[in-house]
Design a protein that fits this description.
The chain has 9 helices and 16 strands. The chain is an alpha/beta fold. The chain has 2 domains: about 170 residues, Quinone Oxidoreductase, Chain A, domain 1, CATH 3.90.180; about 120 residues, Rossmann fold (3-Layer(aba) Sandwich), CATH 3.40.50. Strands 3, 5, 6, 7, 8, 15 and 16 form a 7-stranded mixed sheet that branches. It has a 6-stranded parallel sheet with strand order 11-10-9-12-13-14, sandwiched between helices. Strands 2-1-4 form a 3-stranded antiparallel sheet, with no helix packed on it. The longest helix is centred in the middle third of the chain and has 21 residues.
Length: about 325
């Protein structure tokens, strides 16, 4: 079978599309013929060597996708079933072997492309607004990278809970994307944005700041109110500076971290969380921009497109037609 692989760390040029051995199934696994694969910043971090990778090269990135069952060793699924997943490794390939514990059945109203576009980012946004901090009616929420995939979904979920949303972006061309995702305010991450946040909140600061940028962590604290919370869940720009716990004590502020895998500990949890997310989409409460598609064989271009910040929506890898 064909897969998108890399044998050394570096830029998009290290990606290769080539044959690898066919997969063998273990007990309680299914073989999925992939129809759509989600490309995420985590895949870029893995390609660049920022994340620890187990095993030896060649490596296959990817954890998110959707497709059709073509072989099974479990009675829970049959050939022809439509399925998806958010946390199954080696998804950048024509076929993926997945434990049934990690498989999420697809409702009729959710397409392969939709599932591969929303599961990882949508489930991330879901736990951020429900677990890392419970967003509630009347809260004022600051969302960094609000034009990104997680940011747009997170903004919509916060609005569902009755919050006022302030979205931040580095690119003024993406202001419209933030407002389209139902944010109340869209600001440029540049000189003076903290003052503007304080003006909007009448000097009080926000109840919670969701920070996926990293280098902005202390700025997030500066616009978070006394007894407020900063949720750190990414470092797309750079690692954050160390936080002095005395500052947390003096201002009664809270710093918490977030990682999706910690919130998907069981099959039951995956099914429960994905059902809520799919229901929001089917009901029109959460909407996604049309994804940008690349063929799996054109993975280098897809990586470049995402890494250069050209996308306002999800980037998908579509397996080449045989």
């Amino acid at each position: 079978m064909k897969a998108l692989i890399f044998s050394r760390f570096g830029g998009p040029e290290v990606m290769e599309y080539r044959d690898i051995p066919d997969l063998n199934l273990n007990a309680d696994e299914i073989l999925i013929e992939m129809k759509a694969i989600g490309l995420n910043y985590a895949d870029i971090y893995r390609r660049k060597g920022n994340y620890h990778l187990e095993g030896n090269p060649p490596f296959i990135a990817g954890y998110e996708g959707a497709g059709v069952v073509v072989k099974t060793t479990s009675p829970l699924y049959k050939v022809g079933d439509k399925v998806s997943f958010a946390d199954v490794p080696f998804s950048n390939a024509e076929y993926v072997a997945a434990s049934v514990e990690h498989v999420i059945p697809l409702p009729d109203d959710i397409s392969f492309n939709m599932a591969a576009s929303v599961l990882l980012q949508g489930l991330t946004a879901q736990y951020l607004a429900a677990d890392s901090y419970q967003v509630k009616l009347g809260d004022v929420v600051l969302v960094h990278a609000a034009a990104g995939g997680v940011g747009q979904i997170l903004s919509q979920i916060c609005k569902l809970h009755g919050a006022t949303v302030i979205g931040l972006t580095r690119d003024k061309r993406k202001i419209a994307d933030i407002l389209h995702a139902k944010a109340d305010h869209a600001l440029i991450l540049g000189e003076g944005w903290q003052e503007r946040v304080m003006e909007i909140t009448e000097g009080k600061g926000v109840d919670v700041a969701f920070d996926s940028v990293g280098s902005t962590l202390m700025d997030s604290f500066s616009v978070t109110k006394v007894r407020g919370t900063v949720v750190f869940y990414g470092m797309s720009a750079a690692d954050p500076k160390p936080v002095d716990p005395r500052m947390l004590m003096e201002k009664s502020k809270t710093l918490t971290g977030g990682d999706l895998w910690s919130h998907l500990p069981s099959k039951e949890e995956r099914l429960k969380r994905s059902k809520e997310l799919f229901d929001w989409i089917i009901q029109g409460k959460v909407k996604l921009k049309t994804p940008k598609e690349f063929s799996l064989s054109d993975g280098r271009a897809a990586h470049s497109f995402l890494e250069e910040g050209k996308s306002a929506g999800k980037v998908l890898l579509i397996p080449d037609k045989k």
